[in-house]
């Protein structure tokens, strides 16, 4: 075994940041995007593990079109449920650690206090149901070397996301109506990438118990208050952001009203939980603005 890392779904925001983090840390890593590896194909997955002989596999590949999943649940299940099972079986055969990225959508989203890692699952959307199947596949197949890291409200420089959209809309809209009845934890993909790197190393060292961890920045906020903070960082008038309710933006898949996740299990692994979302956003902002300028320059 080479002792390196294999990242699936490496073309996405998190995959890009994880590869960058590992490179900066001097850890050998290979990234395979969707075109390079279909995680639902057992033969292709086995071949990839034989070729690269990783010690740690991080599955960032996922069907993330939440609304489309409502009418295409079988297709979403293939990627979010079967894919992790195929990876877990291949990792079991190869003796590799698997870290599966999951979501707050596996919960009902109606709690009044942060969801603990062991809280009962109760997904209310097709996307959430398919991700819950993927979690179970990993934890059942790899009881000693399988890890699930749930995250939420991701943003980063390497892809489309809510923060990018609000930065763009500030320049073209006089006012913005943003929902103020959904509460969660904006999470910078660069911060989560660093946490995944620590978890993988701890898993190899035998200091991180297998199981579920919550990878979100600390604290919580609403989409409305997040947008006001984005405007403040832009030097724009935050009063241009107006609160509204989820009923004003009805979508096929229900959104969790409360997506705040608890972080207690990190300390069992000797790893500090992620810092506050507020501090992370401030640090992320220069890169987000650079990415916006790059997109604008190329006519995106």
How do the helices and strands line up, and which of them pair or pack?
Elements: E1 5-8, H1 13-25, E2 29-32, H2 42-52, E3 56-59, H3 73-94, E4 97-103, H4 126-141, E5 146-151, E6 154-155, H5 162-170, E7 176-179, E8 183-184, E9 187-188, H6 189-205, E10 211-214, E11 221-222, H7 223-234, E12 241-244, H8 265-268, H9 277-297
Parallel strand pairs: 1-2, 1-3, 3-4, 4-5, 5-10, 6-9, 7-12
Antiparallel strand pairs: 8-11
Helix pairs in contact: 1-6, 2-3, 3-4, 5-7
Structure notes:
- The protein has a domain at 5-160 and 186-219 and 260-275: 3-Layer(aba) Sandwich (Rossmann fold).
- 45% of the residues are buried.
- It has nine helices and twelve strands.
- The protein is 42% helix and 15% strand.
- With 300 residues, it is of the alpha/beta class.
- The strands form four sheets. It has a six-stranded parallel β-sheet with strand order 2-1-3-4-5-10, sandwiched between helices. Strands 6-9 form a two-stranded parallel ribbon.
- InterPro entries: dTDP_dehydrorham_reduct (IPR005913), NAD(P)-bd_dom_sf (IPR036291), RmlD-like-bd (IPR029903).
Short overview:
This protein is an alpha/beta fold and about 300 residues long. It contains nine helices and twelve strands.
Which properties best describe this structure?
single chain, alpha/beta, Rossmann fold, six-stranded parallel sheet, two-stranded parallel sheet
